[in-house]
Amino acid sequence: MYNSQLPTDGSNSPKGTSVEVGVFEPRTERHGNERIRLLLKNFGLRTSLIRLKVIDVLLTAAEGERSMGVRGLHTQLLELGIPLSFLSVREVLKRLCSEGVIVLNADKSYSLDPRAAAMLRNH
Question: pLDDT exceeding 90 applies to what percent of the chain?
Answer without folding.
Answer: 56
